[in-house]
Amino acid sequence: MDVIPAVDLLGGRCVRLTQGDYRRRKVYARDPVRVAEAFAEQGARWLHVVDLDGAKTGRMRNLPLILRLICNVPLRVEVGGGIRDESTARRLLDAGARRVIMGTAALGGEDGLPSWAGRLRRRVWLSVDTRAGQVMVRGWTAGSGQSVKDVLRRAREWPLGGIVLTSIARDGALRGPDLRLARSALRAYGGPAILSGGISSLANIRAVARLRSRHVVGLIVGKALYERRFSLREALGAAEDCTADG
């Protein structure tokens, strides 16, 4: 299980939202590239990048900055937020991104997964962002009208690389992960999953690692790192210790 540090971009700055609320944002750095470089120096293998402007508006406002991150930081980068068409997805992948993550493009309409996603050979992952049992879209500002269980059942048939599962109520709140949601989703989907939302301690990381599911390939950590609850090196060590024990 990879521990994946998050860099969320709003207006070119590195920020964190609380429970997906754009009004409850905190700026942590004005130079996201330097933040990513610091994560690489601490041993990260992956970087999770979200264009929050793009997620909300449908147009990637931070694309030039994201391309700089992909090209200049020695990490495997996964990108989400505002990826609504094939040309944007291909531009990111051609620049070196390993995964593109989409939600609204797949869940915001009636047609389901766009045909172009299948052409990208499982480099597309589905963002499953949940609040009160419903999957949210448009930067978590609108409901999709679809339940988590229904979306995951459909996703099993889609040519995806996997899913990124986020509990919005836990995200940025430092309340610990929603393990009940994780277990239910892992059973429903049955494929590779990255979990996100609520990590506040090394004990939380160990709890996710102890799910002992071969489907959990990654855990996204954001606010806890920025608030210095622990270092990335410590987080990586906690995950590795549980893997060694299991």
Q: Describe the global form.
A: globular
Q: What is the overall number of helices?
A: 11
Approximately how much helix is present in the residues?
25-40%
Q: CATH homologous superfamily, by name? A: Aldolase class I
Overall pLDDT score: 93
One letter per element, helices H and strands E, the order comes to EEEHEHHEHEHHEEEHEHEHEHH
The CATH topology assignment is TIM Barrel
Number of strands: 12
**Oligomerization category of the chains in this entry:** single chain
Strand order of the largest sheet: 1-4-5-6-7-10-11-12
**Which CATH C-level class is it?**
Alpha Beta
Structural class by sheet pairing and helices: alpha/beta
Largest beta-sheet characterization: 8 strands, parallel, barrel
- Rg over alpha carbons: 16 Å
Structural description of this entry:
The structure is a single chain. With 246 residues, the chain is an alpha/beta fold. It has a single domain (2-245), classed as Alpha-Beta Barrel (TIM Barrel), CATH 3.20.20. It contains eleven helices and twelve strands. An eight-stranded parallel beta barrel has the order 1-4-5-6-7-10-11-12, surrounded by seven helices. β2 and β3 (21-29) form a beta hairpin. It is globular and about 45 Å long. The protein starts with a strand and ends with a helix.
Please tag this protein with its features:
single chain, 246 residues, alpha/beta, TIM Barrel, eight-stranded parallel barrel, 11 helices, globular
Question: What order do the helices and strands come in, and which of them pair?
Answer:
Blueprint: E1 2-10, E2 13-18, E3 21-29, H1 32-41, E4 46-51, H2 52-57, H3 63-72, E5 76-80, H4 86-95, E6 99-102, H5 104-107, H6 115-119, E7 124-131, E8 134-137, E9 142-147, H7 148-155, E10 162-167, H8 179-189, E11 193-196, H9 202-209, E12 216-221, H10 223-226, H11 232-245
Parallel strand pairs: 1-4, 1-12, 4-5, 5-6, 6-7, 7-10, 10-11, 11-12
Antiparallel strand pairs: 1-2, 2-3, 7-8, 8-9
Helix pairs in contact: 7-8, 9-11
